[in-house]
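Researcher: Next entry in the queue.
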Amino acid sequence: MNTTLQRHLLTALLLLTALLSPAADLPWAHGPLSVSANGRFLQHTDGTPFFLLGETAWLMPQRLNRDEVQHYLQCCAEAGYNMVQVQVLNDVPSFNVYGQPSMLGDWQFPPADGRYGYWEHMDYIISQAEQRGIYIGMVCIWGSQVKAGRISADQARRYGQFLARRYAGRPNIIWLMGGDIQGDLHPDVWQALATTIKAADRQHLMTFHPRGRYTSARWWAAADWIDFHCYQSGHRRYGQRMDSKDYPIPDNTEEDSWMYVDSTWAYRPVKPVIDDEPIYEGIPQGLHGADEPLWTADHVRRYAYWNVFAGACGHTYGNNAIMQFYRPGLPPAYACRTPWYEALRDPGFLQMQHLKRLMLALPYFDRVPDQSVVLDNGTRYDRLAATRGRDYLLVYNFTGRDMRIDLSRISGRQRKVWWMNAADGQLTFLGVYAQDTLTFRPHAVADGVLIAIDADSPTSAKFAAAVQPD
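Model: Structure for this entry, 470 residues:
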């Protein structure tokens, strides 16, 4: 046997072994997810931090076949995502790509009929995600179906029992109630569904995906079934106000996604919070105007860093083409023209991993938002977002404006300082500074993060190697 053939066979054997052997580094090897002691972060039961980096795949169960599921989830894993959220039911009934229904008659679920049944296909998605270390965010039923009265509280209990029996034993489940809806619309249905699942499944976390510009804490702060909160900062730009008597935010703050963290933490008890639907890459600003400019990767990054530096426990990315899995021949929503498989190369989709890597490279549970780090701050796009731990601080700068930073907010007589390009994750070492106030001009071609670390702390010694992209 020649050397080249031997090498190819060995490579194939190693790949097969990796696929068939349980991976020790899968997230749930550290135990189920739980809430940190301070109520603001997620972690595994052994104390390992979990930075939730989500991807939005609403119609995956309905529009992707088996080969496409594998390709999509592999791309997600390679881009650093550890949660993919889907609409388990986008309609009543729903049909998968093979034409198989989710139910027969009055919430009666079809028996197993082979490989391509609706629930067998959902099983396959969850299994493929599990192999790649990805949680599936199970949006049990989209809010529009509840609003339309297509499920009652009794039916919700029946459905919840079915879901819990089928999926409570899977390691990679996160339950999502709601689905772009207010919690006070048919709250009996949501309560019945959530409590039924939770009674049978105490292992997996549960939350609620609300309507745009709302936080789930508005309705469910005291609910014992909700483990962490979601808000939807939505898709509108400054000044794009909805004609609503119950518009829940001040005028001209539509892009200030960071404000929802504080407004959620105003409710008690304090729980972790995440923006589960910010602006989507490639979607019209304001959502519904086909002639409006599209949100682009730089704005997607801005929302991510603003949210996390305000205290969010992670971030959820969305892409107009991917969330609906648009392809030629399907009716496009929201003026989409890009096939989903091409959108997997969109810059924003690939850039979220730099934020995740940054947050996990630093001491995790002592991090707090702290705007006092920034001297002479701006507003809107010129607002600098700051967060810090005991021995490090981070300041996100969207516009590249001059920045004055108070380094005395962290420990140390000297601080090592870097600039991280948010678009590619590359670090530039700026030097060691003894002064407490640093004036910095990025001269950057893209938005980025100023990073300062106590030069004598263990954090500074291991930071650069941990955060630099491969």
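Model: The chain has a mean pLDDT of 92.
Researcher: Noted, moving on.
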